[in-house]
Amino acid sequence: MTETPNAPPGRPMGRGALIASTLGAAALGALIVLGAILPAEFNRDPLGLGRLSGLSRLWAPEQQEVGATSGSAPRAREYDTAFRTDVVEIPLGEFMAGADRSSLEYKVRMRKDATLTYAWEVVGDVDPRDFTFDQHGHTTPKPGEGMKVSSFRRGFGLRQQGAITAPFDGIQGWQFSNAGERPVVVRLRLAGFYELVPAGQPGNEAGIVANVAAAQARP
After folding, report:
1. Is 69 domain-assigned?
2. Which parts of 3-158 fold into alpha helices (H)?
């Protein structure tokens, strides 16, 4: 059998061709990194090719799972009480009108873990140092039962805004007191899961009527 002679080796690539091939490969690699990998993986698009090609839409930040509860309370809740909003205008007399006209308590009824958002402001010519509020709540126990009390914030000022999460079934709200020389109106805006307390019951002993002008709000 006749043996086929080995093919002659190819000619080595010239120095210039080798440099050109290396530079071309480096340029292609850089283009792939800048135009494809950075937009798709790191949300960086220095050449604008990721936006044009749609690769930028492939990027997504690393997800961090957050628990469904904060402590023992769930972050998302559902309530049996219907959502509602109200505006309550509370007229308060000047200090010399007597404590029964210059100070009162106004609360709403809330179930445990229900949320109330609120904002109130004092309308009238009064020094902030002459107006006090005490934000608190309590249960309405039957005779012989103990009372649970919540104390949120107290101080001087002409406005407050925030939210309350009821720590128990009961009533939550404010004691407002005007120590100034002029009558004022507290305009209270409420939204959330609560019920208005009927006139004369604990939390609304003054008989304040919601959603009417201040002149008709207090008997």
Report:
1. no
2. 15-32, 38-42, 49-53, 99-102
The tens digit of pLDDT for each residue in 147-160 reads 999 999 999 999 99
Instruction: Quickly count: other Cβ atoms within 10 Å of residue 197's Cβ.
Output: 21
Is residue 208 a contact partner of residue 101, using CB atoms and an 8 Å limit?
no
Whether the pLDDT of residue 209 is over 90: the answer is yes
Looking at the chain, which runs of residues are DSSP E strands?
69-70, 73-74, 83-92, 103-110, 115-123, 131-138, 149-156, 159-165, 170-178, 184-193, 195-196
- Evaluated on CA atoms 198, 200, 203, 207, the torsion sign reads positive
Instruction: Please tell me the distance from the alpha carbon of residue 75 to that of residue 84, in angstroms, as a whole number.
Output: 20
State the amino acid at position 35 in one-letter form.
G
Q: Examine residue 9 and state whether it is found in any structural domain, yes or no.
A: no
pLDDT score for 32: 60
Where in the sequence is the domain holding 99, given as residue range(s)?
A: 80-217
The reply to whether 91 and 174 lie within a common domain is: yes
Q: For residue 127, is it within any domain?
A: yes
Structure tokens at 44: 């960086």
Please state, rounded to an integer, the average pLDDT across all residues of the chain: 83
